[in-house]
Structure formats: structure tokens, C-alpha cells
Design brief:
This protein is mainly α. It has nine helices and no strands. The protein is elongated and about 120 Å long.
Length: 195
């Protein structure tokens, strides 16, 4: 190697070291400038993860305790302490239990109380069970989100047919949706009502 090549090599090495130190200084300035923000971000992430873990553990404990209270109610339906514990832990599951008991005991007062339930479908089911005449069944079926809409219409039509109100029953049966699994029954009822 010649002297000129050695000098160029040393210059390149010095330039690369200079660039390395320049980058190190820029990184150090960046870290000093945003040190608090980075620490706060890490702390925030740790807190969020910890809070989420604690929340999930708490919810899991509530579910287990609610299941235990429900299990006590299955073995002893008159256990008032288990019923109040279930209501405290899971109001929706409490309403489901009350609905199942009201249906099995034919308790219309309990069903009336459940008409305003916040549980997903309990209020709707209670309204259906309480509808005992054609007018109330049609009123139930007129609600947009009625679960047993078509069944209520068929039940109303059968009651009307029993009262010899054939034309009214046909009008009610025509409200049953075309996609309903009850369409065969509707066809039979329309034919039965006509003849």
C-alpha cells in the first residue's frame, strides 16, 4: 500500500467514526429531550396492562361467584341469600332465574315484574307469556324486535278461529313473514278457516 492509500483509508475511518459519534450525540440529545415522555409512555402501558389484568380477574371472580349462587338456587330454589347474591353479581342471570321459576310455577305476577327487565330477551319473553288474548298477542307481534312475533300471530289466529272470527284470523295469518318456519302451519290454518 502506498502512503496516499493509507492516508485515504485513515480519512475514511475518521469520517466513519465522526459520523458514528455524530449519530451518538444526536441520539443522546433525542433521549435527553424526550426522556420524560418515553418513561411516561412505558409507565402508562404498564398501568393499562395491569389495570386490564386486574379488571379481568375481578370479572372472572364475579362470574364464578354468580355461578356458585345459581348452583345453590338449583339445589334450593327458596334460598333468599343465594338469590340476593346472584342479583348483586349478575342482574341479567338473576332475571333469567326468576323467569325460569315464573314459567315453571305459572307465576303471572313474577312475569309482570319481568316485563321491564334489562336482560337481553327476558322482558320480551315475559311480554309474550303474559299475552293471553288475540289483541294482546297482536300487540306483542307488532313490536319490531319481538322474538316470538310469528308464533304470537299464529296463536292469535287460532284463538280467533276458535271464536269463529275466520276473516279476522285470515288477516292475522297474512302478517306472518314469508320466511317463517310456521308457513306450513299458516297454510293449513288458512285452509281450515276457509272451509
Amino acid at each position: 500500500m502506498s502512503l496516499k492509500e493509507n492516508i485515504n483509508m485513515v480519512k475514511e475511518e475518521l469520517n466513519s467514526e465522526e459520523k458514528f459519534f455524530e449519530k451518538a450525540v444526536m441520539t443522546e440529545k433525542f433521549v435527553k429531550k424526550y426522556k420524560n415522555v418515553m418513561i411516561a409512555s412505558v409507565v402508562a402501558v404498564v398501568l393499562v396492562v395491569g389495570a386490564n389484568f386486574a379488571y379481568n380477574m375481578n370479572e372472572e371472580g364475579k362470574v364464578l361467584a354468580a355461578n356458585e349462587a345459581l348452583s345453590k338456587l338449583y339445589s334450593n330454589p327458596s334460598d333468599a341469600a343465594a338469590l340476593s347474591e346472584l342479583k348483586r353479581l349478575s342482574p341479567d342471570l338473576h332475571d333469567v332465574w326468576l323467569y325460569s321459576q315464573a314459567i315453571s310455577n305459572n307465576d303471572t305476577e313474577a312475569l309482570k315484574a319481568l316485563k321491564s327487565s334489562n336482560a337481553m330477551i327476558i322482558g320480551d319473553l315475559a311480554k309474550y307469556e303474559l299475552a293471553g288474548d288475540p289483541a294482546s298477542l297482536e300487540e306483542y307481534a307488532s313490536k319490531q324486535n319481538a322474538i316470538y312475533r310469528d308464533l304470537a300471530l299464529v296463536k292469535s289466529a287460532v284463538m280467533l278461529l276458535n271464536e269463529n272470527k275466520v276473516e279476522k284470523a285470515k288477516a292475522v295469518l297474512s302478517k306472518v313473514s314469508a320466511e317463517s318456519s310456521l308457513n306450513e302451519l299458516v297454510s293449513v290454518l288458512k285452509h281450515y278457516g276457509v272451509n
